[in-house]
Amino acid sequence: GERLTGVSSGSLWRGLRVVAPRGYIAQKKGGDSHPYCRVSDAASTDHLYLPLFVPVEDVFRLVQDLRQAATEPPNSVQDVVARLVAQKQSGLVGNRQASNTMAYLSTDTHEVLLDVAATIVRPLVRIVGHLQLTRLELVFIPIHSDKVTFQRYRVADLSSVRSLHLGNADCALEMSFEAANTVAGFEKNRSKVMLSFEDSTARDSALLAIESHLAGNDKVDEELTGAMRAWQREEIGNFEYLARLNEIAGRTFNDLSQYPVYPWILNDYSSSELDLENPEVYRDLAKPMVALNEARLKSFVERYELSPADTPRFLCGTHYSCPSYVLSLLVRSAPDAMLKLQGGRFDEPDRTFYSVEAAWKSATTISTDVRELIPEFFAVQEGEIPPESCVRSQNDSYTSGDFLLNLLGLDLGQRQDGQWIEDVDLPPWANGSVDQFMKMHRAALESRHVSQRLHLWIDHIFGYKSRSLEHRTLFYTDVVSEGPNADMVDLNLIYQEFGRTPKRLFSDPHPPRDYQPNKASAIRRSHSRPFKCVQRLASDVATPIGCTIRHRIMTVSWSDGFLRIYEAGRNGELKRSRRFEGGLGDVCLAKSEVAFCSTDAGNIYQYNLGSGRVVEVCPTAHSGAISCMVCETLTTEETERSFVVSAGIDAVRGWLQSGPLQLRLAYDLDAEGTVVSLATFVTGDKVSIAALLDDGTVVVWLPETLSKGDNPFASPQCRWKTGEARISSKLKGEVHPTVICWVGHDRLVYIANSRMWIQAEVKSGGVQTSVDIDEPRAVARLGNDIAVGCADGSIWRVDAQNRW
């Protein structure tokens, strides 16, 4: 390559000459979508490029860098390119002169509230740049910073924002807008914009900044329980309910590996007439696709049983939703996406989607095809397929059913039976009409037969039967992503190849549409003792880590990383859930509707139970995993403030609420050991802290020590050994419950290694008594008494004097 200068039509130009002696790859030749082809004739190897928006020197340097990268070993090329992109991206963040951002804003008086590296995510496309937020606008500037690809969105048009995974990383978010872009960009009318960030911390910071503006608009995402109730009351149809479930579960039109999934509804694609009142024409929604064919299922089970124990054992290697399945169904409307996925080729003609009936037979008989369907098969109303979808982004005039027609005249090849592939062959009952097919297919989805059984399909896709060998939903990606060697494989590549199972939204059977409240699935049972079990929450994939309850709202952290909020007294109704990256630890409630959540990455999140949003993040509160955390409310005549105590391998730290949403470090305490449980006792604005260590030691900080404002690094005022030489630690993967609890200002009770102890006269380290209760598991303060829960399900009451 070389830089050239010349004059054309009286104007000075500067360009870049590129010589490619080995030819080049031609795409979109003549503006048409066709397989890529190599051009190698001598007359076509010399090219002159005239950059319109950036200096030719910038292009020249980039071409030289890429040319150098091409000489590296294949495994190193992507790393070199990623480094070049990262350098360009980091140079833009915070550098307004480089990004020329202010030239794009309406005025130069807007304060930039957020400036962070970000990448726009679209199907098979990534646009690297950075995101800026002002009071009025969201601005995305690509790394090349030209006005053609620059995008602006009005904050007033923002209707919702939610966090998403991208591949294996919980580092993305998706914003929804109610109106079209007010300033032209390279894409118009995108109702949802997906962005990825460097990590979950950067994403959460962006999410908080954006949500602060969203709250001002008084627009809140539809809750899962609200959507379910609306569906049960027939306020929304089956199509809309599935759309909402897909969205809540993290499925998006912007990511083909997480594309929305809809069920096959019918099993009759050969009859001349279709009677939707006949149950025989419907697919069995009580079974996943894997189990619809008994012979095929038997082969899957046999393969699983014969699989070596030291290899990933899965029931089905392929998945019901993956990029290749999605684009095979949409190839006629999104050919460029298929060409990019397939390396410049369309699929083999005999594998191309050419007939609805043939696709159904393939999905129910062939071992490598268990696909479900996509929303395009049922969307008949305008707006049901959003602008960001493949078919809408490449076809402004797309209408319902266009994906079944070869309107672009693509050359998709000839099958072995001699048939050229054109429009999709429709069932006879459609009478050759795409409109009739779409209307009949949608009517089948909304039929009473499907409405009464759709919850069974939801159990397998979004519910408690997903990722289960017993329920025939255990796929290769489930096993690999959750296996012990997950860190050693490229999960992003696996998800792109094989697809991804949606997030689990329901841990119990989904209620049917004719659900009656008095048919609650929660288990109720009474004890002969003065305690009654009124709620039972269970999961077959996770165990509870932390639990707290206040004002009939129960907040539980689970081992699968989810924080789930339940409404007590309403049959364990799940109000909402949120997954936290890096593993979730303890959870505790402030007096307001705020839960404090700790993570294994050492972060503390403030989660608003009312809005279902993270309102503040305290990153790296500890240098490693947080082993335990408690929260109290400190009161004075003027104020009430939350006080949070957290423990990690580095310290015991006290955090005091300094603003509506902010925590400041008040105490940095050295327990001189690994803390396995914490307890606090508050009187007004005075607090006592007790910590149980894994070497069997109890350490205590009392108010007279902590109230000294000039001594934030106070040493423990009391320290003594328990009756246990060593106590199991959650940080070491041990599961014996360990609990410590204050009972009054001078008495502690603790459970360690399945034994219970009471420590009286704490200040003097006085009397220690062992309580003979079989396998105690949990303890809670009831006024001056203690409630002790045991492994056999019994609950005991112990008074302050150890009479029980």
* Quaternary structure type: single chain
Strand order of the largest sheet: 9-8-7-6-12-11-10
Radius of gyration: 30 Å
Main sheet specs = 7 strands, antiparallel
Low-confidence stretches: 5-10, 96-109, 180-189, 215-221, 515-532, 728-736
Q: How many beta-strand elements? A: 37
Structural class: alpha+beta
Give a nutshell description of this structure.
By secondary structure, the chain is an alpha+beta fold. The chain has 17 helices and 37 strands.
Could you characterize the architecture of this molecule?
By secondary structure, the chain is α+β, with helices and mostly antiparallel strands. Helix content is 20%, strand content 28%. It contains 17 helices and 37 strands. A seven-stranded antiparallel sheet has the order 9-8-7-6-12-11-10, with helices on both faces. A four-stranded antiparallel sheet has the order 15-16-17-18. Strands 19-20-21-22 form a four-stranded antiparallel sheet. Helix 15 runs antiparallel to helix 16. Mean pLDDT is 78; it is low at 5-10, 96-109, 180-189, 215-221, 515-532 and 728-736.
Q: What is the secondary structure topology, with strand pairs?
A:
Layout lengths: L1 E7 L2 E9 L4 E3 L10 E3 L6 E4 L6 H14 L4 H19 L3 H4 L14 E9 L2 E9 L3 E6 L8 E4 L3 E9 L2 E9 L14 E5 L3 H17 L7 H9 L5 H11 L45 H13 L16 H8 L4 H7 L14 H10 L24 H4 L40 H12 L2 H4 L2 H8 L14 H7 L8 H8 L26 E2 L5 E2 L10 E7 L2 E6 L3 E6 L5 E7 L4 E6 L4 E6 L4 E5 L4 E6 L7 E10 L4 E9 L3 E6 L5 E7 L5 E9 L2 E8 L3 E5 L1 H4 L11 E4 L17 E4 L4 E6 L2 E6 L7 E4 L4 E7 L2 E6 L4 E4 L6
Antiparallel strand pairs: 1-2, 2-5, 3-4, 6-7, 6-12, 7-8, 8-9, 10-11, 11-12, 13-14, 15-16, 16-17, 17-18, 19-20, 20-21, 21-22, 23-24, 24-25, 25-26, 27-28, 28-29, 29-30, 31-32, 32-33, 33-34, 35-36, 36-37
Helix pairs in contact: 5-6, 8-9, 15-16
